[in-house]
Design a protein that fits this description.
The structure holds 2 protein chains of 2 kinds.
Chain A lengths: L13 H10 L10 H9 L2 E14 L11 E2 L1 H24 L4 E11 L6 E13 L13 E2 L4 H9 L2 E14 L5 H6 L8 H24 L4 E10 L7 E13 L12 E3 L3
Parallel strand pairs in A: 3-5
Antiparallel strand pairs in A: 1-4, 2-6, 3-4, 6-8, 7-8
Chain B lengths: L12 H8 L3 E2 L4 H10 L1 E14 L24 E5 L12 E6 L1 H24 L4 E11 L5 E13 L11 E2 L4 H9 L2 E16 L2 H8 L15 H22 L3 E15 L2 E15 L10 E3 L4
Parallel strand pairs in B: 5-7
Antiparallel strand pairs in B: 2-6, 3-4, 4-8, 5-6, 8-10, 9-10
Helix pairs in contact in B: 2-4
Chain lengths: ~270, ~300
């Protein structure tokens, strides 16, 4: 938990500033469900506004060697920077609202017909603020971000943890094509292809390590809800982006007594 | 499950760096994470194992993979023949049919699965884990590269104040969260995941072809309602083989949460390939059942 930074965001569109200014007068917008809203309130937070950030990014090209598995670092950087820009702009909107954090963050990539090799990276979520007035910003002085739902946020708080940030790591990897000799050599056999295995393994581990590095920068004690996504986007089947995402958390209480599980009968439909 | 006794030492360098880092990673959902903490399980890290296999001639049964039907010899395991009841012999009439186990497919699946599983366990062991919870395994084509990738992932955990597992080999389970809690409350501890596959090829005879193709068949007319005995027998055999294989992995332990998936791939003219995969959790009783309190009516805020 740190104090609010003094500097204000610089590159918000005029429409966003106007919308956020209206929200500062007490009205809030949110994409939380009613149950999520109730649970966010129950743990002492109040939604202050629906926030978003986007970046349209030209991801460019990078030459690949047909027969060599390798990371495409330029593409990795592009995919990472574009998401980071979208996330930062969303955080700026949250800062404008004086929020402590953003919950239910969704990070999407959209491609349009008018932009070959260009993609729109969008981050949206609901900014929340602690009702107690105590700052819950992360150690970089920014509102925490998290892709947790309201229910998950409530449950996490019961375990004595609080989110620090939505952390991610990415790795764009080119998987080598197999040569004719190698293909013919294993004809008629179902055998492991160690080069493929190691290349994919390495790519996923790189993505996860980068995600973990982000968490370490935030001083997090762990990352929950890790997801590993894989997409070829528009690069063809042998080039794959491995994206690792999760919510970095920090322990706020040493001793937490979790309630003992009880059996229930659900009265829901 | 056959797990390699020794670490194979082929973990990527990035994996070792990730485990040496400060923050833990967990693929568990938040409710599962909370339930694990309640049980005294601390997440160590998200663990993964992979194996990419060249996968071809699936169902073609070339000689190099164990024979070309019973008449060629080399079939291993289940085999059953079906004759024509009509007494017709022609090039177009399928006067003979056969169900047979495709051992080469099963062997390849077992190799891919156990290799990926072994690597996940190795990764967990290298992180000092006592067990792996919430295991998820998949087997799917890798883009359009003509290869299959076996993936086994889970969250490595350490038991608070617990002792390391025997021989340093972590236990594994598909369960996590409330399902794992209930299992332990019931007095059972996870030992390992158990999984096996079976693959049976149906080489249809005339009756199977006729019943499968129905009124559009070359024989014309309407199709009477009747059981397709050859296909049903193949399905029963496939399920039985998978069940026996998993049973042989259990020793004196029990299987909990068994899930049997059956996939039938139609190959035309009544021919088919049937694949069964049985997954479950090998569990061992460690205490008497503690009766849970009676259920409480609850409205969930989900």
């Amino acid at each position: 938990m740190t104090d609010t930074p003094n500097e204000l965001p610089q590159d918000l569109p005029e429409g966003a500033s106007k919308r956020l200014a209206e929200l500062e007068h007490g009205l809030f917008t949110s994409d939380l469900s009613v149950n999520e809203f109730l649970l966010i309130k129950e743990v002492g937070f109040h939604p202050v506004g629906f926030v978003m950030g986007s970046s349209i990014y030209h991801t460019g090209i990078q030459t690949r060697k047909w027969g060599q598995s390798q990371e495409l670092t330029k593409l990795t950087e592009a995919m990472y920077n574009a998401r980071e820009l979208a996330m930062t702009r969303m955080e700026e909107e949250a800062l404008e609202l004086g929020a402590d954090g953003v919950v239910g963050v969704r990070l999407d990539v959209n491609y349009y017909e008018w932009g070959k090799d260009a993609a729109e990276f969008i981050a949206v979520g609901t900014a929340v603020k602690a009702e107690s007035g105590v700052s819950h910003r992360n150690r970089l002085g920014k509102p925490f971000t998290s892709d947790l739902s309201g229910q998950d946020f409530w449950t996490l708080m019961q375990t004595g943890h609080i989110p620090q940030g939505l952390v991610m790591g990415t790795c764009v990897y080119h998987i080598a094509h197999r040569g004719l000799g190698a293909t013919l050599g294993s004809t008629g056999q179902n055998v492991e292809l160690p080069n493929f295995t190691q290349a994919l393994y390495e790519a996923r581990e790189l993505a996860m390590t980068r995600m973990q590095d982000e968490a370490n920068e935030l001083g997090a004690s762990g990352i929950v809800g890790v997801r590993l996504e894989e997409k070829s986007h528009q690069w063809g089947s042998h080039t794959i982006e491995f994206l690792s995402l999760g919510t970095a958390v920090v322990k706020t209480a040493d001793e937490v007594t979790l309630p003992r599980p009880t059996t229930i009968i659900s009265l829901d439909n | 499950m056959v797990v390699p006794d020794e670490a194979t030492g082929d973990l990527p360098e990035a994996a070792a760096r990730r485990f040496a880092s400060g923050a833990f990673t967990s693929g568990l959902t938040v409710p599962d994470f909370a339930a694990c903490l309640q049980l005294g399980l601390e997440p160590v890290g998200f663990t993964q194992g992979y194996s990419v296999m060249r996968w071809q001639w699936y169902g073609m049964s070339p000689m190099g993979m164990g024979g070309f039907g019973a008449q060629w010899g080399g079939i291993r395991g289940y085999s059953d023949t079906w004759s024509c009841p009509h007494g017709m012999v022609s090039a177009e009439h399928r006067s003979w049919g056969q169900n047979y186990e495709q051992a080469w497919v099963e062997d390849a699946w077992t190799t891919g699965f156990t290799t990926a599983y072994g690597r996940m366990v190795e990764e967990a062991a290298s992180g000092g884990a006592h067990g792996v919870v919430g295991v998820v395994d998949t087997c799917q084509p890798l883009s359009d590269m003509g290869v299959l990738e076996f993936r086994v992932q889970g969250t490595a955990v350490r038991v608070t104040d617990g002792t390391p597992p025997a021989a340093g080999r972590p236990w594994t389970t598909y369960l996590a969260g409330q399902r794992l809690t209930k299992l332990i409350e019931a007095g059972y501890a996870p030992v390992s995941i158990a999984a096996a596959t079976s693959s049976v090829r149906v080489w249809a005879n005339c009756v199977t072809q006729y019943l499968t193709e129905g009124s559009n068949s070359m024989y014309g007319g309407t199709t009477p309602g009747a059981e397709i005995t050859q296909t049903v027998t193949a399905q029963m055999a496939a399920r039985q083989i998978a069940t026996q294989r998993v049973r042989s992995q259990l020793g004196h332990d029990s299987l909990h949460g068994a899930a049997l998936t059956t996939t039938q791939r139609e190959l035309g003219e009544g021919d088919a390939e049937i694949e069964c995969i049985l997954r479950g959790n090998r569990v061992r009783r460690f205490k008497d059942f503690d009766p849970m309190p009676g259920p409480r009516p609850t409205v969930r805020l989900l």
